[in-house]
Amino acid sequence: MRHAARSRRRQKPPALKPRKTYEGRMSEKTLAIPQDFILGAASSAWQTEGWSGKKPGQDSWLDLWYQNDRHVWHDGYGPAGATDLINRYEEDVALMKQAGLTHYRTSINWSRFFTDYEKGIVDEEYAAYYDRFLDAIRAAGVEPMICLEHYELPGYLFETYGGWSSKKVVELFVRYAEKVFERYHQKVSRWFTFNEPIVVQTRVYLDALRWPYEQNTATWMQWNHHKTLATAKVVRLFREKGYAGSVGAILNPEVTYPRSRAPHDVNAAERYDLFYNRVFLDPLVKGMYPPELVQLLEEHGVAWEYSEEELAIIRDNTVDELGINLYYPHRVKAPSRAWHPQTPFHPAYYYEPFELPGRRMNTSRGWEIYPRIIYDMAMRLKNEYGNIPWFVAESGMGVENEAQFRNADGVIEDDYRIGFIGEHLYQTLLAREAGANCQGYMLWAFTDNVSPMNAFKNRYGLVEIDLERQRARRAKKSLHWYRRLRESRTLTLTIDDEWK
Ligand code: BG6
C-alpha cells in the first residue's frame, strides 16, 4: 500500500474547472495504445433495458426495492423506464459503432430470463431479444461481454429463500448459467458470473442502506460465500461442457491507503482490505479465503455455513480473468473510538474513513479523483495475484446537470470526462508497460443510465439520454474523442510530471 503522506503534496485543480498549467510541472505526454488493447464501455441490463415486456413475477431485488421505496430514487426515475434499451437497442448499437468501441459489457437480467425459476423455463420472448441484441452488437464489429448477474437477483428467490443466504439459490444460479451458455455460447466467449458481488449484501445487510434495511453481518458473509461458491461451480460447469472462451468475475476492490505509515493506520487499512477486497479476490484467484479473515470472523462470532467440499470446489475452480471496477481511492485511519459493546460486529470495528485534505473531488458523486489507483491495483494484481489477466471493467465520472455544458449545436462538451478518461487510461497504459497483465480499459458507461437511488442525477455516458425529449440519444463530445483514440491508438494528454 502506498503511503498517504506522499499524496498530500499533490495539489490538483478540481476536475470540473479548466486545467491550470503549473509551470515546469505539466507537460504533454504521448503513449501508444497496443492494437489488442480493449477500448470499450459497459452498462447493465437493469440500468438500461426498462420494464417493457416484463411479465408478472419477473421482478428483481432491485425492482422490489424501487417498488417499495420509490421516494429514495432521485426524481422517481429507476429501473422501470431506464433508457428503454429493449426497444431502442438498434440506435444504441449504431452509436457503439460510431464510438469505435472494441467491446461492450452488459448483463443478462436473470429475473427476466425465466418464467419459472424453479423449473428453469426460459422466457423465450426475452431470450430472443438477447439473440437479436447480441447479433446486432457483433454485426457492428463490437465484442460483447456478458455478466450473469449485475444485482438482478430474482425477487422471487429473494423472498422465498432469502436470496444468496440459501444454497438452493446457488444451485438455481448454476442452472441459469447452464441455460445461458447453451443458448449463447456461439455469440459470446467472455463471461462473468457477477458484477461487484460484494455490493448488494454490503448495502443491505452490513450497512442497512438499501431495502429491506437489515443489519446482520453473518448474512453478509453467507452471501459472500455463496456467490464465491456459485462462481466456482459456474467455472467448473463451463469447463466441463468444453465451451470456447472464459469465465471471470467483475470485482470492485477499493484501493485502500492508510492515513499514515504508523502501524495502527496501516493495520486499519489491512483490515479494511481483508473484509472488502481479499474476501473475494483471494478465493476467486487463489482458491482460498485468507486465513486471517476466517479467524477474525470466528473471533467476532460471525457464523456462516460452509463445508470442506465447498472449499474444495472453490480451490479447484478459480476464475480465468478479472474485470476490475475502479472509481476512487479509499482512505482509512485507525479507529479513534471504542466499539460499543452492544453494537454487533461490523468491519468498521477496525477502521474509520479518512478524508485527505486538498483531495481532488468529483463533487456530484462525492468521490475523490485519484487516477493512481489503477496503477497501484495493477501492481498488486501482478505481484500478489500471479499476474492474472484483467482489465479495467469500469472507470468513469458521473456529473450532475450536464445540460449546462451543451454547446450551440446541442452537443454536451464534456471536457472533464475526456480529462478523466485520459488520466485513468494513462495510468492503465503505464501499468501495462510496467508488466501488468492488463487487457484494456472500459468506461462506465456507454450511455447515461440509471444509478441505484441517484437514478439519472449523475450522467456517466459517452451518449446523452435526453429525458426531456423521450430519451433521445445524442453523442457527447467525449464519444468523438473516444473514437479518435481507437482510430489513432495513441493517447496524448497534458499531465503532471509527477505521474511519469
Ligand atoms: C458500479 C456499478 O459500482 O458503479 C454500476 O457496477 C454503477 O452499476 C456504477 O452504476 C456507478 O456508481 P453509481 O452509484 O454512481 O451509479
In short:
The protein is an alpha/beta fold and 500 residues long. The protein has helices at residues 4-8, 45-48, 61-68, 85-99, 110-113, 124-139, 155-161, 167-184, 199-206, 217-241, 263-286, 291-299, 308-316, 372-384, 415-433, 477-488; strands spanning 26-32, 38-42, 103-107, 114-116, 121-122, 143-149, 190-195, 246-251, 256-258, 322-325, 330-333, 352-353, 361-362, 367-368, 390-394, 399-400, 438-444, 458-459, 463-466, 472-475, 490-496.
What does this structure look like?
Helix content is 39%, strand content 18%. With 500 residues, the chain is an alpha/beta fold. The strands form seven sheets. Strands 2-3-6-7-8-10-15-17 form an eight-stranded parallel barrel, surrounded by five helices. Strands 9-11-12 form a three-stranded mixed sheet, with helices on one face. A hairpin with a 5-residue loop joins strand 19 and strand 20. The longest helix is centred in the middle third of the chain and has 25 residues, at 217-241. The structure holds 6-O-phosphono-beta-D-glucopyranose. 6-O-phosphono-beta-D-glucopyranose binds at residues 44, 47, 195-196, 252, 325, 365, 394, 398, 444, 451-452, 454, 458.
Q: At the third CATH level, what is the topology name?
A: TIM Barrel
The largest sheet is:
8 strands, parallel, barrel
Which class do the helix and strand fractions yield?
Answer: alpha/beta
- How is the quaternary structure best described? single chain
Give the names of the bound compounds: 6-O-phosphono-beta-D-glucopyranose
CATH class membership: Alpha Beta
The name of the CATH architecture is: Alpha-Beta Barrel
Q: How many domain units? A: 1
* Name of the CATH superfamily: Glycosidases
Strand order of the largest sheet: 2-3-6-7-8-10-15-17
- Counted by DSSP, the helix tally is 16
How far apart lie the N and C ends? 19 Å
Shape: globular
Task: Give me the Rg, rounded.
Answer: 22 Å
- Overall residue-averaged pLDDT value: 95
Strand tally, please? 21
What helical percentage do the residues reach?
A: 25-40%
Enzyme class: hydrolase
Biased composition (Basic residues): 1-12
Pfam families: Glyco_hydro_1
Keywords: Glycosidase, Hydrolase
